[in-house]
Amino acid sequence: MDFDQRSQRSQVARLRPLARQALAAYPLEVTGLRLLHHGFNTTFRVDTVQGERYALRLNVNSRRTRGQIGAEMAWLAALARDTDLVLPVPQPRRDGALFGQVWSEDLGRELPAALFSWLPGRNLGDRATPAQLRAVGQAAATLHAHARRWSLPPGTGLIALDTPLMDSPNTLAAEHPLLTPECREVIGLVWTRVTDTLGRLFQADTPRPLHADLHAWNLKWHRGQLAVFDFDDSGIGVPVQDLAIAAYYLRPRAELEEALLSGYAGVAALPPCSPPDFESLIAGRNLVLLNDLFSTTTAEIRALLPRYLPNTVTKLRHFLESGTYRHDLPGLLE
């Protein structure tokens, strides 16, 4: 059976031995391995005999190169050293490397594996408050300021975020029974608008490393302190992209979006971007997520397509007609 046709339970069972194989490269005595998340990537909680706890990430769907993952690890290490941000710090293996690879027979390729320091607390998720979103804005401004003065190490690189799909392969152009002519027309019109927007923004600001996936499920809160994690989508872009990505998940709660931007403005000037271009970036995020659904190997996520695609078309059509991107529209499938 192909990996992408297996259930989540079966996929995780096939990945668990690979996680243990990856952990053998670290100077740890592992006592427990517990699934935390199985989606685009798969993450396990690792417990040790010394009572320490870590997070092990297997890049199951990611197509990142060694140089790109090396850049991600180097930036995280530099942020931990140079800022007061709470982050997952990559842990060195016995050979000193900050990540390794394990071969998957099911997928026919190497899966990058990295071990990180443990971040306590709960994801912000749907419970985020304005005060917490102000902290997110402050953290984003700190990330961007650090990225402006930091240089990628030799032999590493990050993807360019100057296209609608952020350098991901375009699965929206492939043949699929759900992609009707109407769907393709709406997607094409939004694609053109996002492309034009990115062209203007990349001329108006200085591209630099971005988190590029800054939403409430990649943020933790513990004892009044924010932690930022999951830098797997990091790439070279302009700072307003991080704010637009975060805002996508906050709609229609205007008070949270306003808190995000005010938090950022309390640390640094807001990036240059007109309101129409900001809305285009938010709509573009929907294209990225739809494209990911078509390409993922996780069966439970692929099963969302029959509902997610028509809802996407409804939202994008409304954006084209009104200039505003919204999630709270009538007629969406539950």
TrEMBL record:
A Pfam entry, by short name: APH
Protein name: Ser/Thr protein kinase RdoA involved in Cpx stress response, MazF antagonist
GO MF, one example: homoserine kinase activity
InterPro entries noted in UniProt: Aminoglycoside_PTrfase, Kinase-like_dom_sf, Pseudomonas-type_ThrB
Gene Ontology biological process: threonine biosynthetic process
PANTHER family for this protein: AMINOGLYCOSIDE PHOSPHOTRANSFERASE DOMAIN-CONTAINING PROTEIN (PTHR21064:SF6), AMINOGLYCOSIDE PHOSPHOTRANSFERASE DOMAIN-CONTAINING PROTEIN-RELATED (PTHR21064)
Organism from which the protein derives: Deinococcus reticulitermitis
Keyword Cell cycle annotated: no
Keywords: Kinase, Transferase
Record-annotated Aminoglycoside phosphotransferase domain positions: 36-265
Family the UniProt entry places it in: Belongs to the pseudomonas-type ThrB family.
Keyword hit for 4Fe-4S: no
